Structure to design on (328 residues):
């Protein structure tokens, strides 16, 4: 398979996953969040019921404990576009995927010695 | 497994940034020496695919979910642990800054956990296991699983040092969840390696044992 063909097929596969991700992705907290909520007793270790109030309190507790209260506004928080629903999520992941493509290409191009 | 800002005190976060920067510098040296013109578009596509598949959280039992990290895959396909560091640093940068996934002060820790540990355990796990059992795809599965599991264990230790998790509970919970999430990492690593080896066996740095 030629490089051009490989790249096109690769990009198409990445974009198909990107478009499908917002519809297929689980809304459950990921492994680290889940461990955090369980340790702070907002969620049972082997269960799925999340106590939202306890989860909020846990987040305040951890900021108080570490003293790291740094926060910032991400452009597309949680892979969404503020004000848009599922369409926004699809666009966010697609934009991210294309951004990766361009960014990694650019950094690789700058880093690599031309005679490699 | 993206650590948010609040989880690690600023001073400790800085220490992980310093460690991360050392490996980022080594990854850039790898890129300068080893990445030819031919390979650049392939690395970019691999990174885009890893980003997309990271957005797909797959449900696991116990009300939690997991997604692949991809450092092991990048390291195996491109033949260097530093390839994992290179790709994951850029993925984590975009995820943190643009999408608020993983903090900024703690990004160094996330790069160490997922990029460095993922890349090194993935690469050396793969080459070592392949040498013993001979099957590249089984080796990729085990190395992918181990890369995620070891990252999670290190993450639990860091959060214990930070005072965020008690050590025993952190190890138990992180270990249990990620032993299962690692199966996703291992499975996708093996399947993606198979697809890439079938399409372009020549781009694999260590094609022996990988049959299309």
């Amino acid at each position: 398979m030629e490089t051009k063909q490989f790249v096109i097929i690769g990009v198409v596969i990445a974009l198909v996953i990107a478009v499908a991700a917002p519809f297929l992705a689980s809304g459950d907290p990921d492994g680290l969040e889940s461990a955090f909520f369980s340790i702070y007793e907002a969620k049972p270790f082997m269960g799925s019921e999340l106590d939202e109030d306890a989860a909020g309190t846990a987040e305040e507790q951890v900021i108080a404990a570490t003293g790291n209260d740094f926060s910032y506004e991400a452009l597309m928080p949680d892979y969404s576009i503020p004000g848009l629903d599922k369409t926004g999520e699809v666009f966010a992941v697609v934009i991210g995927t294309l951004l990766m493509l361009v960014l990694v290409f650019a950094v690789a191009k700058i880093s690599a010695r031309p005679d490699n | 497994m993206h650590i948010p800002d609040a989880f690690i005190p600023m001073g400790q976060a800085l220490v992980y940034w310093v460690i991360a920067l050392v490996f980022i510098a080594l990854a850039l040296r790898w890129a300068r020496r080893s990445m030819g013109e031919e390979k650049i578009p392939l690395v970019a596509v691999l990174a885009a695919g890893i980003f997309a598949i990271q957005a797909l959280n797959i449900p696991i039992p116990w009300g939690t979910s997991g997604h692949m990290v991809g450092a092991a895959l990048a390291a195996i396909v491109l033949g260097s642990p530093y390839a994992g560091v290179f790709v994951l640093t850029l993925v984590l940068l975009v995820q943190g800054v643009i999408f608020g996934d993983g903090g900024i002060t703690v990004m160094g820790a996330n790069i160490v956990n997922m990029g460095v540990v993922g890349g090194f355990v993935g690469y050396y796990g793969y080459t070592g296991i392949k040498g013993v059992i001979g099957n590249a795809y089984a080796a990729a599965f085990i190395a992918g699983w181990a890369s995620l599991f070891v990252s999670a264990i290190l993450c639990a230790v860091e959060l214990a040092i930070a005072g965020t998790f008690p050590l025993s509970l952190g190890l138990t919970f992180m270990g249990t969840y990620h032993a299962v999430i690692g199966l996703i990492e291992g499975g996708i690593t093996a399947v993606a390696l198979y697809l890439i080896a079938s399409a372009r066996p020549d781009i694999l740095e260590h094609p022996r044992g990988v049959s299309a």
In short: The CA atoms of residues 84 and 119 of chain B lie 4 Å apart. Chain B touches chain A through 80 residues (CB under 8 Å).
